[in-house]
Design brief:
seven-stranded mixed β-sheet; about 15% strand; 8 helices; about 280 residues; alpha/beta; globular
Length: about 280
């Protein structure tokens, strides 16, 4: 079987190891936090099969599960911005920083996620990805993209919520990428509205944090270890203005990118007690 040749449009991040600032101090305290949080996360993962049960209120169960898993990792959630609309057939798009993004978005608007294909092979997280009906995408294979767009369109037409990260790779949070237009074609084909979300990570004192960034060839264990050793992290989810699809996927991508930047500049992200959930 021949190896897949990366296409010339393969997105590559401008961020690297130098972007990540790990300020964990007092090694013995960090070690205790790591043991406690990894134990808590392992206990939460035991409940994973509940996500696959097709019962009324499943979306509420998924939101609660994602919030519980975030807290077990030492990550608190703050939601700001516009109202969260529980619409059928909604495409949710977000900037992309880390594998933690999946649980941050899932705690607000759970749905089927478009994720890199190798995620399904990760221990624990891979199981969760399969149970929440992940749509795998091999970024290095351009010819697979139409099938991914078709899969997204099919779920949207069935009234499912689908979550995608159109930057197509991760950035540290201080830097960002452009939203690629391909996945927006699914919203146009299914006549589905698009909900932009902007994610930002902060330390407990409110300062911007890059320690959750998952960049390049870093291992999942290395990223997980850095996160659970930290004194505390807050993920801010800014809900942008809902966008109607229109006829042009590039124009739709530009509008959603503007909505993400608008959420990034919202002054109330800086105000109030850190970690307070604002509805």
């Amino acid at each position: 079987m021949s190896a897949t040749v990366a296409h010339p449009w393969l997105p590559t991040t401008t961020c690297g190891e130098g972007c990540i600032s790990d300020t964990a101090r007092h090694p013995w305290r960090a070690g205790l936090r790591m043991v406690y949080r990894l134990t808590a996360a392992a206990l939460v993962l035991i409940a994973l099969p509940l996500l696959a049960v097709p019962v009324p209120g499943r979306a509420r169960t998924q939101r609660l599960y994602c919030r519980t898993l975030l807290r077990s990792l030492g990550v608190r959630l703050a939601v700001t911005g516009g109202p969260i609309r529980n619409l059928r057939g909604l495409l949710v798009v977000s900037n992309h920083v880390s594998w933690v993004d999946v649980f941050a978005v899932g705690a607000v608007l759970p749905g089927a996620f478009v994720a890199r294909a190798d995620v399904t092979g990760w221990p624990g997280i891979g199981t969760a990805a399969r149970m929440i009906d992940v749509i795998p995408i091999e970024r290095a294979s351009l010819r697979q993209l139409p099938a991914v767009v078709e899969a997204i369109t099919h779920r949207l037409r069935r009234g499912r919520t689908v979550v995608a990260f159109p930057e197509a790779t991760t950035y540290c949070g201080a830097h960002r990428g452009r939203l690629r237009p391909a996945v927006f074609q699914a919203a146009i084909d299914a006549a589905s509205p698009v909900q932009p979300l902007h994610l930002s990570y902060r330390y407990g004192d409110g300062a911007p944090s890059t320690l959750t960034a998952f960049l390049g060839a870093e291992s999942l264990w290395g990223s997980l270890r850095r996160i659970v050793r930290a004194p505390g992290t807050v993920v801010h989810v800014a809900v942008g203005s809902l966008q109607l699809p229109g006829p042009d996927r590039r124009e739709l991508a530009v509008r959603c990118e503007a909505a993400l930047l608008g959420g990034q500049r919202q002054p109330h992200l800086e105000a109030g007690p850190v970690g307070q959930v604002v509805r």
